Amino acid sequence: MQGKRILLGITGGIAAYKIAYLIRILKKKGAEVKCIMTPASSDFISPLVVATLSQNPVAIEFWDKKTGVWTNHVELALWADVFLIAPATANSIAKMANGLCDNLLLATYLSLKTKTIICPAMDLDMYQHPSFKRNIQTLIHDGVLVVPATSGELASGLEGEGRMEEPEMIAQFTENYFLSDLTKSNQTVLITAGPTYEAIDPVRFIGNHSSGKMGFALAESCLNRGMYVVLITGPVQLQMAHPNLTLIHVNSADEMLKAVSENWSECHFGIFAAAVADYRPKEIAIQKIKKKEENLTLELVKNPDILKWASENRNSAQKVIGFALETNNAEENALLKLTNKKLDMIVLNTLENDGAGFQSDTNKITILDKENGKFEFNLKSKKAVAQDIIETIMNIK
Ligand code: CTP
Asked: Which atom of ligand 1 is nearest to the CA of 310?
């Protein structure tokens, strides 16, 4: 980030106390930092701390009542290579989404020519409120990048989603923004997610417990980076809407393969996170199967391997990333899949780890790549795991 000009906006939430550390990290990475604070944020962190660490005067008001000096928000906006707002409160996000500019930070946002990255921070009920979700969608639609809040202990004493992402991760996201802006902007990612349902008769199917959470988190992480996403999902309870998202719902493996084959040639990356049923009933009964005999035998036939199909039908620039869920000899089996399916990377998760797997909100992964690289990660939320995966993918040669 050497020489990058980061305009750091601080709004009035308790997470503002962490911004001193964020400024230090950004400065250590070589960035120039100028800060704008909303008046409310100075109750949470002293402008003196912010000015000292950023080595620049802090802008708070349109004009200084004592000196009469006016702060030019247009100049600040033009100076910035990126406008990073951390923490971004529900109030400021609502104002940004609606074009309000009753403070210097908001007026600067409206004058900006470059990208804005926001790091929401609020209590869990506010984070789930439909109005907040609506405002975030509006901002994403307007091209704002979002570092999603994480789950954990909140200042209110409650526990849940709404905690501002940690300063290290925010700095990493910002650094990646500059990298991806140079190398991966306007790229399209195809992601498969969820289970597939293989019909037995009109009312029954063979399926699995995949929730789709990992695939959707990957899609969100890509969209937050300004990428285009084609998300092809089996039946899940999740919803997602974004102007850069094409969401395709399918039921069976055959339908998923059809959707992949219709979209794959337009994509730069394929991330195959779906838990595709390996087999399907050979015949689908036209009528509901009645219980008659003591035993019922279903003949199953193999489903197409969608990941393998994509790997075999790609051009040299397209990168293919698979997932492996293993219960024994995890690394060995994952490496076999990496080689057999000719992948660039495989994300391994083992059911041996508590808190990892299908329905959980957390995951623990190891990424193996075709250059014999091995990247191990701690148990994290699926959102944070998605970020790790996308960051690793960004560095594929
Ligand atoms: N996959 C796919 N199409 C299939 C089966 C799997 O695209 N019909 C993809 C999954 O999305 C995942 C990877 O392949 O990325 C998993 O590999 P796979 O060999 O199918 O794993 P398992 O089903 O666990 O295989 P095995 O039973 O051989 O361990």
From this structure: 7
